Every structure is written in C-alpha cells, then in structure tokens.
Amino acid sequence: MNEINLNRIVSFAALALIALPVGIACIILGFGMGDTPCILCWQERTAMVLVSLIALFIMRYGLKPKYIGALILTAVYGLWAGYRHSSNHILRDIGQGFGPAIFGVHTYVWVIVVFAIILLFAGALLLLQGDKLQDKPAPWSLFNKITINTFLVIIVFNIVQAFTQTGPFPFIGQSDPVRMSFNSDHIIWSTGNWPTPSKLSARGAYTIAKPDFANMSHDAQTQISTSNRAMASQQLQLPAAIEGLATGIAYQASTEMFAVVTSDNWVYFLSKDLTTILAQVKIDAAFSTEISNLAGVAFDGDNSVIVTADHKSYARVAYDPSAKIAHYYANFMDGTDGVKELTRSRFETTRAKYNYIGDIGFDAKTNEYLMVTLPVPTRNNFVVSRMSAADMKLNSEAIISLEVNALPQVTGIAIGDDNIYLLSHSGEQVLVMNRDNRVIDAINLEATTNPQALTLMDGQLAVLNANPGSNSISLFNVQ
Fold it and tell me: Which whole number is the average pLDDT over 157-169?
C-alpha cells in the first residue's frame, strides 16, 4: 500500500471515529437530547478522542511503530473501560439499561463494538503493509484538512460539555448524572467518585470476604433476648473418616439416611445411627460450574440431595448403590461407588446478590429451596431467598424481621411443618421463624461447639458441632 492510499484510509477512519461515536454522543445525545456522560462514559469518550488523535499523527507523519503501539494500548484501555461499564448493566432484565439506547443497544455496549473494530482495523492495516511499514507521510490534502477541522470542532463541543457539566479539577463527574443543563441551579459538580484507600479494590462492590466456617466467632450482640434454653438430650459422634470441617447436615426420614458435607468438598451419605458411611464423593470444584467451600446440604427426595457452596453454586447428587464412580470422572475427584450427580449450576438472587450463605434447606410444602444471607459490614443484609425446585429460579426474597442489636450469622436451616429453624452460629441460638419471615422465638443452646448446621430428626433438632476429625451432632427436643 502506498502512502497516499494509507493516508486516505487513516484519514477516513479518524473522521468516522470522531464524527460518529464521539460527535453523536456529544452533539446529538448531549446538546440535542440533554444526555450527560457519567464518569465511566468520560473515560470511554476520552479513549476514543485519543485514538482519533493518534490517527491524525499517522495521517500527518506516517505509520510509525510508536503510533501503532500507542493506538493499540489506548484501544485496549477503551475496550476495558467499555467492559467495565457494561458489566454493571448488561445482565439486567430485557430492555433495561442506563441512558439512551441506539438501535436497542445502550451506548456503553456500543463502546465495546467500537474499540473491537479499532483493534481489528489496526490489525488489518498492519497486514496490508506486508514486510515493511509505509512510514512516509503523504502530501497534505483537502480531505486531511476536513478531518482535522472536524476533530477540532467536536473537541470544542466536548470541552464545553465537560467543563460546564462535570467541572474543572478536582471534580471528576457523577456516577448517575442529571440531565444536561446550562442553568447553574441544575448543574452538579462532584468529587464523590474519588477513590479512598479503604475502597481500592480490583473487584469493587464484590470485595466481600468469603466465610471461614472454621473461625467464626461468638457475638453476644447477635443474640435475641429469650429465657428459652435447651440442653442436648444426646450427642452422637460422626465417623472419624469424614475428612475436613463438616459444614452441612441433612436427614431424610423416609430412607433413614443422613447426608453430610465438608468445607473440603466431600459429600457423605450415612446410616441413621451415623456409624456407617454408605457412600462418599469429593465434588470436583473446577469442573463446569465452580463449586468450592461447601456450606450446606438438604434432601429434596428420598435419596437425592442438593449441596451448595457458600457462593450459591450447587450440585444435585443422589445415593444410588448401582452408580459407579468411574462413570463420573468429570464430576468427582475421589470417592466410592454409590453416588451419581444429577445436575449442577448456580442460584441467582437479587437482594442476596452480594452476600454469601451458610446453609440451604428444602421446603417440601412449597417445593422450594431456602437460603439465608451471611451479613457483612459492607452488605449488611439479612434476607431469605426462596428458589423454585421446579426450574431452580428465584421465587421470592424477603428481609427477615427480628429485634436484635446485630445481625446473626445463620449457618443452619431446618424446615418444619409450621416454622423454619435458623441456627445462629454467632448467637449460639436457634431462631424460630414463621412463614411470614418474622422471627417469633429463640432458643439458647447449651453445650454446643462450633455449631455449623441444623436438621430435623424424629421431632428433634440435630445440631452439627464442627471439628475436623471429631465432628458430632447434638440432639435437642423442640416443643
């Protein structure tokens, strides 16, 4: 490709980039329709302006390696900014978004398309150069003058919009900007989006510590005032062969069988007297849906259970004496015959989106799975989520109503005919919740150690005391 053709192509690309996405966003959407860019929009628009400027340098001085490097680096930054912006909104319900849409697609998604095209264009341009770059500048033409003057005009419009709507340094824009206006009563200059050392994180709002079930602590502030006390009527030892910290337990009366899960991803099926391990498998955390740090288990059939990780990924497995572990290489890392995997996926929630969980329960009356959030300072939610067992989708979510100084850490769920029992690890209590999501009573537990899970067995509450190598359950009579 000679220098004249190269010059025309680059000039056209620069003109198209500055006039279409940047020009439309600023002049038509901004000055024409009142759209004000948010702080992320300004980053994306700045990256487009810089790519256009680099193209002008190529147009004027030739295709030099330093310009190619600068263009690629700037385009990659713009692509990242687009993904960062889109990740906040792209998975919303159909039709939902932020700001105006063009052909049904919102501007922050178009950013990804624009920078992907820029990178493809840069790659194609380099391929067309053959073995040597055409780094000689072409004679300045009328088309070049149109391009650079268009660039300058659009830059002026952007400067006016930026300094009037966003403000000079140290103002850096709004996350949720108001409609564009030149009335000083309506203009907002904000410094609220400057990061602070406490907010610096690559994961932003997702910076929430995973629960460490082995090191949860007692907190008297989470206790509900009650005079009800329960002393264990019996204590049963789990087999020493159970590996790791037991974090979930469930009992199925129809088959007189227990299921236990551990934080090391083991799932065990045990006899009613807890002396015999009928079968065991270790869930492969990396296969397909990532499932690690198992938090809970619940029977949803005579022989089938759902096991869930603290982040609400789940697997349904079943005890089946005819199942061969050799047939489940992709599902299980280790174990014995007698267990098959039925499915695995993830639960998606709304109110509980930013919270981990400590257990799962199954409500046969409503054919629903129940989960309760583990509150953390940054997302201090106390929410019960109900998932349909028919399609594994969210049925409802509700804030649990209770009177307490601090929200408890619920690590166990057991569901009775009328009430739901929540094991408060931090308060060492069983909270009695009715089906209207209101805690109506509490029971102080005596002689429990690291209570991690809860199930109902023959009218008694079985509380799992977690201790690696010496896990046990305490039985409590419940009126």
Answer: 95
Phi, psi of 368 (to 5 degrees): -135, 150
Strands (E), 358-428: 361-363, 368-374, 383-388, 394-399, 410-415, 420-424
- Considering only residues 201 and 10, tell me which one the structure prediction assigns the higher pLDDT: 10
Residue 11, SS3 per DSSP: helix
| Distance from C-alpha of 356 to C-alpha of 354, rounded to nearest angstrom | 7
Query: Whole-prediction pTM value?
Result: 0.76
The residue among 303, 292, 294, 289 whose CA lies nearest residue 392 is 289
Residue type, 95: G
3-state SS, 112-180, equals HHHHHHHHHHHHHHHHHCCCCCCCCCCCCCHHHHHHHHHHHHHHHHHHHHHHHHHCCCCCCCCCCCCCC
Q: Angle, nearest 10°, between helix axes 65-86 and 39-61?
A: 160
Confidence tier at 55 by pLDDT (50, 70, 90): very high
- Planar angle of CA 72, 74, 79, nearest 5 degrees: 90
Which residue from 147, 159, 81, 158 is spatially nearest to 114, judged by alpha carbons?
81
Q: Tokens in use for 15? A: 């003109």
The pair of three-digit structure tokens given for residue 450, joined into one six-digit string: 């690291």
CB 347 within 8 A of CB 312: yes
pLDDT at residue 198 is higher than 60:
no
Q: What is the pLDDT of residue 478?
A: 73
Give CA separation, 88 vs 81, 178, 201, 217, 351, in Å.
12, 18, 16, 34, 16
96: exposed, middle or buried (Cβ count in 10 Å: 0-12, 13-18, 19+): exposed
Cβ-based burial of 214 (10 A; exposed 0-12, middle 13-18, buried ≥19)? middle
Contact predicate 352/373, CB 8 Å: yes
Sheet holding 294-299, edge to edge: 294-299, 304-309, 313-319, 339-346
State how far the alpha carbon of 305 is from the alpha carbons of 208, 223, 236, 255, in Å. Answer: 28, 31, 22, 12
Length of the chain: 479
Q: Are 298 and 369 spatial neighbours (Cβ–Cβ below 8 Å)?
A: yes
| Maximum Cα–Cα distance across the chain | 95
CB atoms under 10 Å from CB of 355, counted, come to: 25
Q: Record the tokens describing residue 276, joined without a space.
A: 């015999």
Alpha helices in 182-250 (DSSP H): none
DSSP string, 290-325: ---SEEEEEESSSSEEEEEETTSEEEEEEE-TT--G
Query: Among candidates 419, 431, 417, 418, which has minimal Cα distance to 463?
Result: 431
